[in-house]
Amino acid sequence: MNPPDGGAADELPGVAPRLRELRRERGLTLETAARRADLSPAHLSRLETGRRQPSLPMLLGLARIYGTTVSELLGEMPPERDAIVRGGPFAGATGGASGGTPGGAAGGASDGAPGGAEADGWVYQQAGGSGRAMQALRVLVPYGAQGDLVRVHPGEEWLYVLDGRLRVSLGETVHHLDPGDSAHFDSLTPHRIAALDRGGAELLFVHTLLQSPSAELCLGSGTRLR
């Protein structure tokens, strides 16, 4: 239960000063941060002074606005992040653009190499660290799958074609990409991605994960990324 406004909340003693510090570091006024978090300035002020305890939805919203994590807001020490992600063959790849060993990855799976996850014929392999503001994936796009599925959501996307040919539709404009071509676009632009060749296509894909309400789209969740 939240204490009265004149009382102090001691369940999460370190959250209040961190909320205030992060807001100021981001150069946001109390009114601007409150508006983005769908809170009143008075309520956010009470959170920053410890007179109110934030709910989990509030923490999630504020973490997204400040570009951090709920764990950091709660003062938990994050685990040491490994900067290196070892490559390996796609697990479950079925005749993709490069026969299951795309992208010139070193032969054979390295110790700890992430396996692939498949959803609706698309095969994804993690190519970046977890818990960061961007999600990096290596993707096998099968021919003819999800070509009519349109996506619109906040964030940015960048993709680079490694093998095969790709059709990228951005709004009403259609682009054909060859190996070595890339695309970088605002995800609020309606977009579709499809392989042009029957052998499929392989690409590198980077998405600003934490800026999107689709942050649950993690490798292996079974949810369609495209």
In words, what does this structure look like?
The chain contains 5 helices and 9 strands. The protein is α+β, with helices and mostly antiparallel strands and 226 residues long. The protein has a 6-stranded antiparallel sheet, with no helix packed on it. Strands 6-5-8 form a 3-stranded antiparallel sheet, with no helix packed on it. The model is unreliable at 1-10, 91-114 and 210-226 (pLDDT under 50).
Spatial sequence of strands, sheet with the most strands: 1-2-3-9-4-7
Uncertain spans: 1-10, 91-114, 210-226
Number of helices: 5
Instruction: Give the beta-strand count.
Output: 9
List its salient traits.
six-stranded antiparallel beta sheet; 9 strands; single chain; disordered C terminus; three-stranded antiparallel beta sheet; 23% strand; elongated; disordered N terminus; 226 residues; alpha+beta
Brief characterization of the structure:
By secondary structure, this protein is an alpha+beta fold. It has five helices and nine strands. It has helices spanning about 15-25, 30-35, 40-50, 55-65, 70-75, and strands at about 115-120, 120-125, 135-140, 155-165, 165-170, 175, 180-185, 190-195, 200-205.
